[in-house]
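Notebook B, p. 112. Complex prediction, attempt 2.
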Amino acid sequence: MSDGYDDKDFGRIGEVLAKESVWADPPGHIAPALMAEMTGDEITSNAPRSGRDRSRWSWPAAAAFVGAAAVLVVVIFGGFGSESDEPDLFFAVTGEGVSGRAEVGAAEAGWWIRIDIEGLDPAPDGSYYEGWLTDGADVVSVGTFHMHDGKNVVLWSGVPMTEYPEFSVTREMVVEGPGPSGVVVATGRLSD
Amino acid sequence: MAVKAVYDELGGAVFALAMSVLSDRDLAADATQQTFLKAWRASSTYDPDREFRPWIYAIARHTAIDIYRTRRRVVPSEDVDSIFTPPDLEVAWEVFEVRAALDRLPDEERAVMQLNHLEGLTHPEIADRLGIPVGTVKSRSHRAHRRLAELLKHLNET
């Protein structure tokens, strides 16, 4: 380097800067998934917090965590309707030999996606199905299931389908990583 | 500091640490998400008189190691070495700290550092790549190195 600093000045830092892992950027789906998880945790805790419970949020960011979660809930539920067993939205699910109808409704902690699906075989041992929503860029998991008994599936989403309108089901292997396998068995799309 | 701000400030550092341990983007993403959830849920154990970064670093390191061990159990042992390189735990703290410092640099200085240190480009090559004068590259590089040296002096002192 010719700008007043050389590798000797930088010592170990220079070696670390040459590592690819240092520069690796996290995928974009983590932040929304994280917020969705946190929102769910906060909302599903129905019991009022005691004074002791509140005091446990001694971490400086904790109060902000709660505040951010509350704000997100307002944003999420705004314009979508209140909690109900009645569906707000519908879409068709199709795949090779697979057909079904999905309903979407608001819940306290996010949204439920109820699917009545035909033609999807029970997942073999060591595998399972996983539902996903995407906006074309970020992908969010909405839950896993096996189809061992019955044809009704209920999934949960922390992100609104109005913003993540593409739905898909993949077949996953237990030993694989947490991301989508790419083996898509059914898809659906929320109509405008 | 809102949760998004916490993640924006240290998400890259946690992910970089996880990548250095796991060498797999999907697993590192999982480790990153688990780390912030664990931190959020374990906030009662955080002592506000202590620094925040080492606390979340410890959670991230344990989480990444747990995932690594889990993968070793489910992948046949003869295949492990072909899938994973052993985790480089010695350098994990340095990776975490260096990445956290890099994320505090302005984007244009960070870009110069990346091209210089990761891709090994010279100042003229960086200027050519970015379409800016060599003098600008040199000044950005100087400022970035000076900032990093200040932010990371504790690493060279240990």
